[in-house]
Amino acid sequence: MDQAIIILTGILGATITFFVSHRFNQGPVRASALLSLIIGLFFYFFPHILNTYLSSNIPVVFIGTSFIGMLSTTTKRSYVHLTIAGLLFSVIYINKNNQFDGFGGALGALAFIALLITFAFSFAFTKGIHRLKLLLKVKKKNR
């Protein structure tokens, strides 16, 4: 159950940051900082609302996925891409071991990796669909 909550936090962190940034014209940095501050302060003042694991990890996951939500609108990506990247970030975060301990920028690196993987699969999938359509058109013309 804890892992499902962490994954939901990751998805919400990416999508809500993007939404606040672009819907309310706050900019990506301000939206990320504001929402991360709200989540961080909430769990700072109310640490016993949830168990210790969730109270300590929800703010970290939210901050990390808010980096994903800082995505520019010029990339022409949808909320589906943000949802997948947030989900992927959360899964990587849950399954990480101590390899990132002691390294600065681990959350940003994980956010970058999640976005890169999401966009790579999206690009490959859309190119594959496009090639399949072209192949079907060629076969149809040859008949």
User: Any low-confidence stretches, pLDDT <50, length ≥5?
Assistant: none
Continuous helix count: 5
How is the quaternary structure best described? single chain
Helical fraction: over 70%
> What number of structural domains do the residues give?
1
Rounded average pLDDT: 88
In terms of DSSP E residues, the strand content is: under 5%
Structural class: mainly alpha
Biggest beta sheet attributes: none
Task: Please trace the helix and strand order, writing H or E for each element.
Answer: HHHHH
Observed structural traits:
about 140 residues, mainly alpha, elongated
Give a short summary of the structure:
The chain contains five helices and no strands.
How would you characterize the overall build of this protein?
With 143 residues, the protein is an all-alpha fold. It has one domain. The chain has helices at residues 2-23, 28-45, 52-68, 79-95, 106-142. The mean pLDDT is 88.
Task: Give a topology summary.
Elements: H1 2-23, H2 28-45, H3 52-68, H4 79-95, H5 106-142
